[in-house]
Structures are given as structure tokens and as C-alpha cells.
Amino acid sequence: GDSVTQMEGPVTLSEEAFLTINCTYTATGYPSLFWYVQYPGEGLQLLLKATKADDKGSNKGFEATYRKETTSFHLEKGSVQVSDSAVYFCALSDPLTNAGKSTFGDGTTLTVKP
Amino acid sequence: DTGVSQDPRHKITKRGQNVTFRCDPISEHNRLYWYRQTLGQGPEFLTYFQNEAQLEKSRLLSDRFSAERPKGSFSTLEIQRTEQGDSAMYLCASSLKQASGITYEQYFGPGTRLTVT
User: Among all residues of chain B, which has the CA nearest to that of A43?
Assistant: First the structure.
């Protein structure tokens, strides 16, 4: 079945540092890939998405590129802020074959210190 | 568009009691999903509806769990005879399946945190 593997956390960075959170996936079809962010006590917010190979999703300074050859979708940000502290989830969904339901990684906790 | 809402946000119950959660999806969305999230884990799929029809249930959904979406709008998730292992965040999401057959991204509600004592 489909699966998502994220780098283990927690990740602690200083403000303005460069962020990379690794995500790799296994899927039988042609999934769409997503990054969600979860702040304490809240639900998941869609951060960015990519629907086909070589697409780059971007939002709020975060970027991720859909790499089919390496089955990866790594999240990057050039300069993190304290307000980026949250849990980040990588997810996949096959829009045609699995009813749109998502498979998630276990999340990576990011803490940014001033 | 007011987003996906869930009620209650928090529920504390004693073991053996029944609980019911409600989810109101984005109004034009025809698909509704329930997920369970435990501490330190990503959300796990429980079940989903297309309009009022429940089309898939995960093996995680034991006989004590039941979900409904009676008029294809809001949905309820009931847990009977709660156990301590049911303590988790229950997330609802909705999406739109288009005529092309493609379902786009899901929009999540804030979740209901259940604590069974």
C-alpha cells in the first residue's frame, strides 16, 4: 500500500536558518503530494501541494518539488521564523484511485528559537 | 466559505460511556472524511462519505464506531462503550470530487480531542 516516510524530529533551528525536512513516499499510482502544518491544539492546514512530477509547490516562503525519480518531496525554507514553529506532515493522495483519502507521515516537529 | 467546523473541540468522558462528534464540511464539498490522530503520529484514515453514502471504512473502525451523513451535509461519528485506547484527536476533512473523477485536496477541521478516563 501507499506510505510516506518523514525525517524524524524534533528539529530545532535558530531564526533565519535554512530548513529542510525530508519526505519520501511509496505509491502504486500517480499521487498528488502535500505538506500540511499543524499548530498546537489545531487541525491541519494545507501548506503547499504538487500534483505531478517536477511540479514545485510554494507558499509563505516554503517550497517543495515533486521528484518522481527519487520518490521525494522535501520541504525547504530559506529563512525560518519563530512563527514557523509547528508540526509538519507530508502526505500523499491519489486523486483518481483512492477516493482522495490521504496517507500521512508521522510528522516532524520544528522549533525555531529567536 | 466558513471552512470545516467540528463540535465539540474537547470531550472528556469516562470509560464505557458513549460519545458523539459532529462535523460540518465546506458547503459545496461532496466528500467527507474522518481521521484519527494519536500523539506523535500522523492522521489515520477511518472512513469517508460521498454525499450520504459511506463508501469505505478502515479496519481501524471497530464495531463500536459508527458514522453517518444523513443528508449529505454534516456528519456524526459515534463511539460506543469508550475505552482508554480511544483517546485521540478525531479530525474531519472535506473535499470536492469533480465530474472528471478527480478529487482535489482535503480541507481539515480543527478536530475534536477525546480523553477517556
Answer: B110
| Contact (CB<8Å) B42/A99 | no
Please check whether residue A62 is in contact with residue A7, taking contact to mean a CB–CB distance below 8 angstroms: no
Which residues 58-87 of B have a C-beta within 8 angstroms of A?
none
Taking only the tens place, the pLDDT of each residue in B76-112 is: 999 999 999 999 999 999 988 776 666 668 899 999 9
Cβ of A43 and B108 within 8 Å? yes
| Beta-strand pair A19-21/A75-77 | antiparallel
**What would the grid cell of residue B65 be?**
464506531
Q: In this predicted structure, which of A33-42, A87-96, B25-34, B97-106 has the lowest mean pLDDT?
A: B97-106
CB atoms within 10 A of CB B32: 28
